[in-house]
Amino acid sequence: MKLMDTLIWLHITIGKRGVRGEAVKEKLQKRLRKPVKWIILRCLGCGFALFCGKECQTLGWKDHKAECKGLRKAESIPDIETRMLGRIVLRHKEICSGKDKKTEGFYKDRTSERTILEIWAHTEKIRKDSYAMNKFEEIYEHLTKFYEEKFMMSKDVVFELHCRDYINRHAISDKGYVKEIGKGLYLDLCAYDHSCRPNTIFTCDGFVATLRGLNSNVDIKNRSTTFYTYIDLLSSLQQRKKQLKDTWYFDCQCERCIDPSDHLLTSILCPACPSDNRAEICIFGEHSYKNDKSGVITCERCGSEVPKDYVMEAVSAMRFIDKIIEDREVEQMPKKTRVEFLEDLLERFTKILSGSNIYLCKLIQ
């Protein structure tokens, strides 16, 4: 069983002024993994927007009309955050005024019965988040400079729409699921909750999102028992919880997050065990070999107490690996230097981190 959801709002990152239509067509064919038999038309107003034909241009005008005027006067193209929110605001304004019922094709290919105001917003939590509020103020400033006042709504309404977009939007990937080619808001897909041990997977085929069960027992229609992941699952418990809390404002208590064995992803090797038979020790969480009050860890295999300095060395190693991966430092090195650097790190850290440690695995990867 599967759920297919079509986009209600979309922004695709592809065009630049001066890019030829055929070049865009070829690019889209590669990204959307299907032939694009289109006549590429460029908007005569702004010279930026591209359409796949006359019908597409006519249907797309309701979303493009506001940004068309903005693009003509803009010194630079606004980022995806600004333009996507602008499209959402414009559509919501037309729905509120009743123009949606008078506009042909306004709900073309619409499958969801939900409205944008029915999806999660977390407005109060976002108000208390200084980073998120600064982000909104920045987007709102760009929005009001780019769009004419007649296309805008009050700041309070824009904030409500921004919160829903911020919490619920999805990345649209290329066919190899390597590169993000745009963002979309799927009203049905965002009704499903997250799990770090999901029983479904979300995929993109062009602009259509599909939620597929990972086994035959999954009932897609039952949202209380159907989950997919919002994040990269190749992360430690601490990383996953932080990302989910920072972005979606909830403490994950899925079956994986409450499973003590998940701490193996940050486990270390006992420094006192024989080199050919070293025990894997979990340094986070509650375990029989860890004193709850003092935090002292005793190896169950050899009976030795694990020095706190050794534990801190392992924690520092994991933080270091995480930083160089996040900052993409290794990718910027010449090939020979990169190989030598990674080999040196592996030699050092395989003496401390266990074979189950996710940071060591990422280093090897």
Question: Can you characterise this structure?
Answer:
With 365 residues, the protein is of the alpha+beta class. The protein has two domains: 2-228, no CATH class; 260-364, no CATH class. 38% of the residues lie in helices and 13% in strands. The chain contains ten helices and 14 strands. The chain has helices spanning 21-32, 54-73, 80-97, 123-127, 130-146, 155-168, 237-248, 308-326, 335-349, 358-364; strands at 2-5, 9-12, 41-42, 50-51, 170-173, 180-185, 193-194, 200-205, 208-213, 227-228, 268-269, 280-281, 297-298, 305-306. The strands form six sheets. It has a three-stranded antiparallel sheet, with no helix packed on it. Strand 13 and strand 14 form a beta hairpin. Helix 2 (54-73) packs across helix 3, helix 3 (80-97) crosses helix 5 (130-146) and helix 8 (308-326) packs across helix 10. The longest helix has 20 residues, at 54-73. It is elongated.
For the structure shown, list the relevant keywords.
365 residues; alpha+beta; 2 domains; three-stranded antiparallel β-sheet; 10 helices
Tally of contiguous helical segments = 10
* Strand residues, percent: 5-15%
Largest sheet, in brief, is: 3 strands, antiparallel
Q: What is the global morphology?
A: elongated
Strand order in space, largest sheet? 1-9-8
Helix content: 25-40%
List the helices and strands and how they pair.
Elements: E1 2-5, E2 9-12, H1 21-32, E3 41-42, E4 50-51, H2 54-73, H3 80-97, H4 123-127, H5 130-146, H6 155-168, E5 170-173, E6 180-185, E7 193-194, E8 200-205, E9 208-213, E10 227-228, H7 237-248, E11 268-269, E12 280-281, E13 297-298, E14 305-306, H8 308-326, H9 335-349, H10 358-364
Parallel strand pairs: 7-10
Antiparallel strand pairs: 1-9, 2-6, 3-4, 5-6, 8-9, 11-12, 13-14
Helix pairs in contact: 2-3, 3-5, 8-10
